[in-house]
Specification:
- It is globular and about 55 Å long.
- By secondary structure, the protein is an alpha+beta fold.
- The strands form three sheets. Strands 3-7-4-6-5-8 form a six-stranded mixed β-barrel. It has a four-stranded antiparallel sheet with strand order 10-11-9-12. Strands 1-2 form a two-stranded antiparallel sheet.
- Helix content is 25%, strand content 30%.
Length: 257
Amino acid sequence: MTMRPLPIVARIITVVCILFLSACESIVPADTTAYSAVKKFTAGNKTPYVVFGETYEVLPESLDYKEIGVASWYGKKFHGRLTSNGETFDMFQVSAAHKSLPIPSVVKVTNLDNGKSIQLRVNDRGPFHDDRLIDLSFEAAQVLGFANQGTAPVVVEAINDVNYPNLKPAVRKSSYFLQLGAFSRETGAQILLAKISTLLEINELGAVEVNILQSESTTSVLHKVWMGPIDNEDRREDIIQLVRTAKLGNPLKVVVD
């Protein structure tokens, strides 16, 4: 029997099929388990990351985040530059930089020196100083009343209702902080901190944090000893009485709602 040659179109289809099948034989199926452990990042959330030789890690979530520390602010030098998530930094709008909170996170920042607070969005990384917790835009520092100085002691609290809108809103409780003393020299603050820490340990209250935070102006730096957060009002009053009885000062109370 004489074989008729295949039409030209049929020959082309045959060749393509042969090539396709050959290629499939050389492909190794992807190991999907290898990808399950790989984190997916949005802009600004790569972790870990390195700045000035130091390694930092981004928190997996902002839920219930609350921390006391020192705030600074940034302005003209960075005005118009891109933030870590690709937005344009505007010193006259409220925003913030944080080393470890996920971007974006909405936080409430309260100035412990005057009780003023503001809600804003974290869209940048920094400040890359060991003694700084958060870097605010110039406008945010204006609202909090410390734009005419370098730093201020603050409480930074993530706003769960905004960051996780699908969660059932929790009952918000006030937190209490105590300023135990302010010193022009850090040595005095360190001595008081040591005495307060010993007092708390003796009375089995060592879980309450005590920190030295700076309030920096153009002419001086105050080293302030802060205690908190204290979430129980009765416990706060017990601590105040302990400090007074030990003659370690008359604590200044600050409430953060």
